[in-house]
């Protein structure tokens, strides 16, 4: 599906390993083609056409699939259930069907040694580079799950399969959920509605138990890492040693305030060493694996917020800290790769501004740091294998999108895309960057004020406040569109002022900024948002009697909280997928920020919105997906029940079959529903 608002871009950019060749999919008059360009020469060649690819496959494709490089010669793609392996020769790619997977295969993982692991239901399978198929696990209980991500994808976990560097071993998560209560999710599309139970561990209740196992394809044996400690602790940051002799696991206690980085033997599963520990009075939040320095089996980079900001530290495998690589009142966002020749790690960070992201090289011997890009904005990078070149794609408030190839030493730069502004012919709002102090009187907060086209400062305008203001999310960036969201601009066209701001508790500002909400979610965030309201009321063109607020998920919690704890400030509100009682939310997230209900009774009771329905003044629309497995439907159902019990009128709308977010064509319906609600109550 395309749109006339889509910006010009590069499709499927990738660097061929071990080279300076950038590959991309290009649309031609004869269909898609996979094209390579050598740098710095800029010479391009078409290596593969869609027709050539279809000639080599059994199931014909209408567009190029997603290609993934394994090494300098081999790449693969998945078409339906077919895994195709290709080898690059002087005359082009030769493609062969590597294996045909079951129709129900998920979590398909291919390593650089051309082994293929995947899950079917709750079990893990392996198709080796010797073309041998093995069922790695044979769990009969569907509530024991192998090879999938665990801990509800907190702690940076996004997978459950970990091949060793040379393919000798296959490590995987094994999650036992048998002790977790069943939670019903109903399929309403059937004539007789059907129930599907999921496992949803709620705060303070019994959680699942996770172990890490290692399978040896040669022997067929499996061992389990002896991760001592309570069975409901968290296992994350799984990383193989380059020599395949051991695996590293960060063990985090359920209280999430004590982390041990342990090393385990790949042969026996026994703990070899605890490299170091990290503690914090509030919480430790590991999010990244270890990054071993190229060419070294015993030196790696560790991410930590121990000094108050997310920074990088060089360690050896004896647990000795060699040096802190980055330091300052800013955070590291990503590791892009390494330049072994220059002893550099490539990173992105917020060093210039919390509203921007830029690329840097950092020397791992002396910490010298040099910026890769040159222009303000929000930059994303793809680094080549040896860290000598990057593809830099960025936008800024006046730059829709620009994509460049740059040498990381600054000696080469070429613009590949300078995208035209697809919004230039539309009636655009005026957008102002706002900075105000938080409720503490000293912490700067950043926001945007979006004014209607043809704004008349002598008039009074209704206002919509859009917010999230929760952990791990940042709304305000120097990026395109400058507003941050085209729905804001649409509402401005309809005569609204739109205001959005990141208060304390949101991301990218350091631990003190984020942890200030610990054990009392919603309080500090509301105090800061009320400072935003105070600012709005100071503007002569704001109609303080016609203010609305809208948010989703944590933003739905914030929206409802503002309506109940600051009644009368907002005339109407729309809260989507809202948390109403943190006791009903999942263990990992909730206990990190709130502790358990038993340990923090006052905090949970204060944040509970179910018993505060009588405070409602104004109009409130609640929206929920009936199949929400993140903020379960029960939150808003219980709220509605209390409204009925207390004689409080509230508006309610559900999206049958939708999970936490309403996507696809139905999102048009959702946004029209929200728009209409504000029009009905603020105009």
How would you sum up this structure, described in words?
With 683 residues, the protein is mainly β. The chain is 13% helix and 39% strand. Strands 36-37-39-38-40-41-42-43 form an 8-stranded mixed sheet, with helices on both faces. Strands 13, 14, 15, 18 and 19 form a 5-stranded antiparallel sheet that branches. Strand 1 and strand 2 form a beta hairpin. The longest helix is centred in the C-terminal third of the chain and has 17 residues, at 666-682. The model has no long low-confidence stretch (mean pLDDT 97).
Radius of gyration: 26 Å
Largest pleated sheet:
8 strands, mixed
The beta-strand count equals: 43
What percentage of the residues does DSSP assign to strands (E)? 35-45%
Poorly predicted residue ranges: none
What's the pLDDT, averaged over the residues?
97
Shape: globular
**How do the strands line up in the largest sheet?**
36-37-39-38-40-41-42-43
Give the structural class: mainly beta
Could you estimate the helical fraction of the residues in percent? 10-25%
What kind of oligomer do you see? single chain
Number of helical elements = 9
Instruction: Calculate the terminal CA-CA distance, rounded to whole Å.
Output: 34 Å
């Amino acid at each position: 599906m395309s749109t006339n608002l889509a910006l010009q871009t590069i499709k499927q950019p990738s660097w061929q390993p071990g080279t300076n060749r950038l590959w991309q999919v290009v649309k031609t008059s004869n269909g898609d083609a996979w094209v390579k360009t050598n740098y710095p020469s800029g010479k391009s060649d078409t290596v593969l056409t869609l027709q050539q690819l279809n000639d080599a496959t059994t199931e014909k494709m209408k567009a190029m699939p997603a290609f993934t490089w394994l090494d300098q010669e081999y790449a693969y793609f998945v078409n339906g259930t077919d895994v195709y392996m290709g080898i690059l020769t002087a005359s082009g790619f030769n493609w062969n069907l590597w294996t045909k997977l079951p129709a129900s295969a998920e979590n398909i993982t291919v390593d650089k040694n051309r082994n293929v692991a995947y899950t079917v239901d709750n079990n893990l399978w392996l198709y080796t580079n010797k073309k041998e198929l093995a069922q790695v696990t044979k769990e009969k209980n569907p509530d024991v799950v192998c090879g999938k991500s665990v801990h509800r994808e907190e702690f940076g976990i996004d997978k459950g399969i970990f091949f060793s560097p040379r393919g000798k071993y296959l490590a995987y998560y094994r999650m036992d959920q048998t002790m977790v209560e069943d939670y019903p999710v109903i399929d309403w599309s059937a004539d007789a509605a059907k129930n599907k139970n999921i496992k949803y561990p709620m705060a303070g209740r019994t959680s699942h138990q996770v172990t890490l196992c290692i399978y040896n394809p040669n022997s067929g044996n499996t061992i389990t890492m002896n991760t001592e400690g309570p069975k409901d602790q968290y296992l994350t940051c799984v990383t193989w040693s380059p020599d395949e002799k051991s695996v590293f696991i960060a063990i985090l206690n359920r209280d999430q305030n004590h982390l041990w980085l342990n090393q385990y033997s790949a042969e026996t599963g026994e703990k070899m060493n605890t490299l170091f520990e990290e503690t914090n009075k509030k919480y430790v939040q590991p999010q990244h694996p270890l990054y071993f320095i190229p060419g070294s089996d015993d030196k790696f980079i560790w991410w930590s917020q121990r000094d108050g900001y997310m920074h990088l530290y060089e360690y050896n495998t004896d647990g000795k800290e060699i040096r802190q690589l980055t330091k300052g009142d800013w955070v590291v966002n990503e590791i892009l790769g390494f330049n072994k020749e220059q002893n550099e790690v490539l990173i992105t960070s917020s060093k210039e501004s919390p509203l921007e992201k830029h690329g840097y090289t950092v020397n791992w011997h002396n910490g010298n740091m040099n910026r890769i890009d040159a222009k303000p904005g929000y930059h994303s990078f793809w680094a080549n294998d040896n860290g000598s070149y990057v593809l830099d794609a960025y936008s800024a408030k006046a730059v829709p999108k620009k994509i460049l190839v740059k040498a990381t030493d600054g000696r080469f730069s070429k613009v590949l895309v300078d995208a035209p502004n697809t919004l230039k012919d539309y009636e655009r709002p005026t957008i102002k960057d706002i900075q105000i102090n938080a409720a503490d009187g000293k912490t700067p907060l950043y926001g945007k004020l979006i004014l209607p086209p043809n704004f008349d400062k002598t008039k009074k305008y209704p206002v919509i406040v859009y917010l999230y203001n929760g952990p791990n999310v940042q709304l305000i960036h120097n990026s395109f569109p400058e507003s941050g969201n085209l729905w804001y601009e649409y509402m401005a066209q309809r005569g609204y002022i739109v205001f959005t701001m990141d208060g304390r508790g949101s991301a990218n500002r350091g631990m003190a900024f984020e942890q200030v909400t610990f054990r009392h979610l919603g309080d500090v965030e509301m105090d800061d948002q009320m400072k935003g309201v105070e600012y709005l009321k100071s503007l002569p063109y704001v109609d303080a009697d016609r203010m609305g607020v809208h948010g989703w998920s944590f933003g739905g919690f914030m929206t409802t909280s503002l309506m109940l704890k600051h009644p009368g400030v907002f005339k109407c509100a729309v809260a989507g997928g809202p948390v109403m009682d943190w006791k009903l939310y999942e263990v990992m997230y909730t206990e990190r920020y709130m502790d358990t209900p038993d340990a923090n009774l006052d905090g949970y009771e204060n944040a509970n919105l179910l018993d505060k329905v009588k405070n409602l003044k104004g109009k409130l629309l609640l929206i929920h997906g009936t199949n929400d497995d993140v903020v379960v439907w029960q939150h808003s159902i219980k709220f509605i029940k209390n409204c009925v019990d207390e004689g409080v009128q509230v508006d309610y709308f559900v999206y049958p079959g939708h999970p936490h977010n309403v996507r696809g064509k139905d999102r048009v319906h959702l946004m029209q529903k929200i728009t209409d609600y504000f029009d009905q109550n603020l105009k």
